[in-house]
Amino acid sequence: MAGFPVNPIDGQLYTSPNQTEYQYVLASNSWRIVGLLEQGNPGATGVAGVAGATGAGVQGSTGVGAQGSTGTEGVEGATGTQGSTGGQGETGAGIQGVQGTTGSEGALGSTGTQGSTGLRGLIGPEGSTGLQGSEGETGVGTQGTTGAGIQGSTGEQGPTGSKGNDGVTGEQGITGVANFTRGSTFPPSPQDRQLYWDNEDEITYFYDERSDSWIDISSGAIPVAGPAGLDGVTGAEGATGPIAINYAQTVTVAKSGGDYTSVQAAIDSISDASAIKPYTVLIYPGTYTEDITMEAWVSLRGVGDLASTVIAGTNSAPLLAFDGTFSVSIIENIVLDLRPTANAQSVLSVTNGVHQIVGCKLSVISATDDIAANVLDLNGGVVVVRNSNIDYNMDGNSLNARTHSIVTISGTVTYDFTNGCFFNIDIDDVNDEVTLFEEEVGAVVTNGRLLDTVIEIDANNASFTGVISMFDVKGSSPEKSIQNSYVRLRSAGFGERYAFRLDSSGDTGSIKSTANQIRVEGFDKNYSFQIAEGDRFVSHFDDIIADSGATGAGELSLASSTFDGHMSMTDYACQVYDSTGGTDVHTAGGLAVPFDAQTMVDSIYTHSTVTNNSRVYATHAGLYKISYSLGFVTDADARRNVRAYVRKNGSTELTPSMSYDYVRQTANSNGTCTALFYARLEGGDYLELMGEQASTQTGSASAVANASWIMVELIRGLTLN
């Protein structure tokens, strides 16, 4: 057949000028017709040949030869060798064509060099698995795109031929194409490896998605991706964190056999670390007694069990401090152990950057008298602590009252303690103050969270008279949260203990507690909360035990939380009522109901039963719950539609305070307007209950004695004692 390409390869496609598609079959050294859309000729099903020897040669990219179109049912064909697998094409209506034979097996390829074990780092995007290729440099080769050959149109199935001998498995054919189209312009939105026949130029093109281009393949085969490289050894799973880093550069520290025997020496040896070239210092088991100053974009990771890699501080500086340059780092699987003999030492100091503490133990242990320390000194940056233990055990006796601030916050900080962090705090002194999170004046916590943590603070001295709290918020900060955690503050002596203390400098302190168990027990005064005016504590679905309840004039919201302790409202409610009746509450423009009697008027309210007795004054700014009832009776056989609402300061209708009641055309019929709502008031505001005509129907409706009242409750300032 004149015009076929010279030296074709197995599976090569060719389209003749009369638009007939052919495919070259190496086994028979012949060109066969494939994929006419109108119909195909019936062909006998190929049989498997004799099984050949199995080879372990290099696997090429996957491909399928062209499948012939199926014709009408024909007679049983003679047994033949199995043809190459046809490529997928457009679906037609012909009958199924013959199946191509399997190519011969390729030669045995040599084994490539195994890649080195990957380092453990943060989890990044999952890479695709490479195929095994020929021996070469270690790496991951590009995986070829798998496609199907052109599929013929489907028709009735011909009879099955008899099975022949298994053929020898051959080399894998070229990768097939997605589909085949014809026309005078390239098709829009093509698929990768799509074929296109230009009717005018009689040229076959191949679309390559990676280069976004059509390639002329009239004189050759469809481009095939090269073999993939060897799979590298799977590295250990890295810790989850907000920023994925590929720690390609490593330096090792070991007692013997490593790059260095000192952690600081290893850090100091790094001079080119950057955001695009971070380093990890791998620390092998042993105790390294030194203080560490970190470099930017350098991380530390202990090798082996947690307890086997220890960095012990020398008490001359923070055990581990970051240099103040912005960077991202991880401290992982290391014990940071501080045994202070002097006052005001810390384990870890942060002023800038984003740092993760993962699977570590931060420990402060001392029997020295008259000292205090802290574990984390946060003066800026972002600190994420996951699945780590924070131990603080002071057995000494103080000659003076000391303040133990386990986590000190003095700058603009974001912190996040999650995934099973455990705080174990033990104090044996008698008059010290202990705070787990000490937020100093001027500090700003942009986001603070404790999730799935366990917090236990114990004062073990039977003569303890100090103060212990979990949170002590004195800075200006937005809302912080603690969720799904267990908190126990316990004493063997006296003193005071608060789960939460809020006295923010800008009256903006806020803590949200959700689904926690909170226990405050064993003290002379067991307070759950101390909330200063202007601050706010919200408890949702908590289980709280604190015999002395809460104190302070701040806002406390308990939603679906159980509270085992004294909980009484004092000095925050006012209820007054109309004992006489007779005011016409069905007048245009409305009238205020006079209240000549009162049930309670606590100290933050004022009301007179004689002068301006319709007014209830609030002397304290805050959020109030307001409820009322306006009872009336008609004086004639006429319809009455009464609207009631609460007016502030003689002119402002509070919303949503409005209510209506309608009475039909019967004399001496009664109606009642009621409502309950919330409103924020300033000190000096006064409230009145108003009744007015709400329709065009005129006539009077009089307030009923002892049926009209208003009650006002301050809910932002609850005193629980």
Question: How would you describe this structure to a colleague?
Answer:
With 721 residues, this protein is mostly beta strands. It has 3 domains: 225 residues, no CATH class; 232 residues; 142 residues, Jelly Rolls. It has 1 helix and 53 strands.
Distance from N terminus to C terminus (CA atoms, Å) equals 104 Å
Mean pLDDT: 73
Helical run tally: 1
Compute the number of strand runs: 53
User: How many discrete domains?
Assistant: 3
**Mind describing the biggest β-sheet?**
12 strands, parallel
Q: What percent strand?
A: 35-45%
Strand order of the largest sheet: 8-9-12-15-18-21-24-27-30-33-36-39
Please identify the structural class as seen in this structure: mainly beta
In short:
The chain is mainly β and 721 residues long. The protein is flat.
